[in-house]
């Protein structure tokens, strides 16, 4: 009888949550597979124009958002009346540099996780979700919850939890690229004396903020009455206007003004980026450079558009492992890379947010101690 009553309670709770989202455009069973959208190194790349993957984007022409696009549907023409979604990066006066691929990927992850939470939170299930390089399996773990705890999970808490879990997934993406795992493209290849891989973009200065912004937009779009892709298209355009996104020529001016300060010209290697962002908790303040190019485009002062980095525990008041968490089943290469920096997975080879305190500060230390030895940094 108790189980029957609990099932009935959960049905009522989930039915009330479901009124906030149509899930139109967010597939069931969370089929986000394959590589991420092609993202941008914070350096000029000789491959950008050749592959036609990214560049400086026009915030007034971002195309139509397409859930889980690129790998799954890259050969399909967009529906009549819709423009293909735009990748690339841009500079915004209040949000700094924005990587649109990171925004879109994390929006889709957050929307997918939001649906999974509404359908499965508290049921004691494990839901397969997006899998990338370095993992044998990636799962959203949702332990069983009592009726009292479920009653405390308000719609707002569910939305913020989805943002938190998607951000965790984005941090795993950055960790994997730090470990030279193939995430958005092919594995390592060599040109002359240069080792070219995605490590050069790991924890890039704009990534964390773009990830978090995308998570918030994706959940807001998923919770709206509009179809998801339509809502994301609208919200993305509105948010870019709100944070003062510049046209391509403005982004180029700001970018070029940071040459030899935030980035070093040359082949895309891990030596090139001179500024990264390793923040994974607290309030995210975008990195806003100073200088004549910024002042010319944004004025003397710009108020940063800050974003809170939520965690499941901060949202619910309960430990992540008791409510919801992302779990990575690390492969052998990932585990070896962790061991080299003095970090360990749990006894079963799983990596969760609980390991961030081990992994991310040590990756940060690597960039701070190893890279300056290779090439002297200029003073900012």
Describe this structure in words.
The protein is α+β, with helices and mostly antiparallel strands. It is 41% helix and 12% strand. It is built from 14 helices and 10 strands. It has helices spanning 2-18, 47-51, 100-120, 147-151, 155-178, 207-222, 228-242, 248-257, 292-298, 312-316, 320-323, 332-340, 356-369, 371-374, and strands spanning 89-92, 96-99, 123-128, 135-144, 189-191, 194-196, 282-284, 307-309, 325-330, 350-351. Strands 3-4-9-10 form a 4-stranded antiparallel β-sheet. The longest helix is centred in the middle third of the chain and has 24 residues, at 155-178. It is globular, with a radius of gyration of 21 Å.
Tally the helices. 14
**Order of adjacent strands in the largest pleated sheet:** 3-4-9-10
The biggest beta sheet reads: 4 strands, antiparallel
Mean pLDDT: 79
Q: What gross morphology would you assign?
A: globular
Distance between the termini: 67 Å
Percentage of residues in DSSP E strands:
5-15%
Helix content: 40-55%
Number of strands: 10
The radius of gyration over CA amounts to: 21 Å
User: What structural class is derived from the secondary structure elements?
Assistant: alpha+beta
Number of domains: 1
- Model regions low in confidence, pLDDT < 50 over at least 5 residues: 1-20, 46-53, 71-75, 185-196, 371-380
Order of helices and strands: HHEEHEEHHEEHHHEHEHHEHEHH
């Amino acid at each position: 009888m108790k189980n029957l009553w609990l099932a009935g309670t959960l049905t009522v709770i989930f039915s009330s949550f479901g009124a906030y989202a149509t899930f139109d455009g967010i597939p069931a069973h969370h089929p986000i597979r394959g590589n991420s959208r092609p993202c941008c190194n914070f350096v000029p790349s000789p491959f950008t124009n050749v592959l036609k993957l990214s560049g400086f984007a026009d915030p007034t022409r971002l195309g139509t958002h397409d859930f889980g696009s690129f790998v799954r549907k890259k050969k399909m023409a967009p529906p009549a009346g819709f423009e293909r979604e735009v990748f690339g990066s841009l500079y915004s006066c209040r949000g700094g540099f924005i990587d649109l691929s990171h925004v879109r990927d994390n929006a889709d992850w957050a929307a997918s996780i939001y649906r999974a939470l509404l359908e499965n939170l508290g049921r004691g299930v494990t839901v397969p979700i997006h899998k990338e390089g370095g993992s044998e399996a990636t799962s959203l773990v949702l332990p069983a919850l009592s009726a009292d705890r479920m009653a405390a999970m308000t719609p707002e808490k569910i939305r913020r939890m989805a943002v938190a879990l998607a951000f965790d997934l984005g941090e795993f993406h950055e960790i994997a690229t730090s470990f030279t795992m193939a995430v958005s493209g092919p594995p390592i290849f060599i040109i002359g004396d240069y080792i070219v891989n995605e490590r050069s973009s790991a924890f890039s200065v704009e990534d964390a903020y773009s990830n978090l912004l995308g998570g918030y937009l994706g959940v807001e779009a998923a919770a709206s009455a509009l179809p998801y892709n339509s809502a994301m298209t609208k919200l993305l355009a509105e948010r870019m206007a709100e944070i003062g996104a510049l046209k391509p020529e403005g982004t180029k001016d700001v970018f070029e003004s940071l040459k030899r300060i935030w980035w070093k010209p040359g082949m895309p290697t891990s030596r090139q980026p001179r500024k990264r962002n390793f923040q994974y908790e607290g309030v995210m303040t975008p990195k806003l450079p100073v200088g004549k190019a910024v002042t010319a485009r944004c004025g003397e002062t710009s108020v940063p558009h800050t974003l809170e980095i939520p965690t499941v525990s901060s949202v619910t008041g309960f430990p992540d492992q008791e409510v919801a968490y992302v779990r990575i089943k690390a492969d052998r290469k990932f585990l070896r890379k962790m061991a080299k920096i003095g970090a360990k997975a749990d006894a079963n080879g799983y990596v969760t947010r609980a390991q961030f305190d081990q992994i991310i500060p040590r990756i940060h230390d690597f960039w701070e101690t190893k890279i300056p030895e290779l090439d002297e940094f200029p003073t900012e």
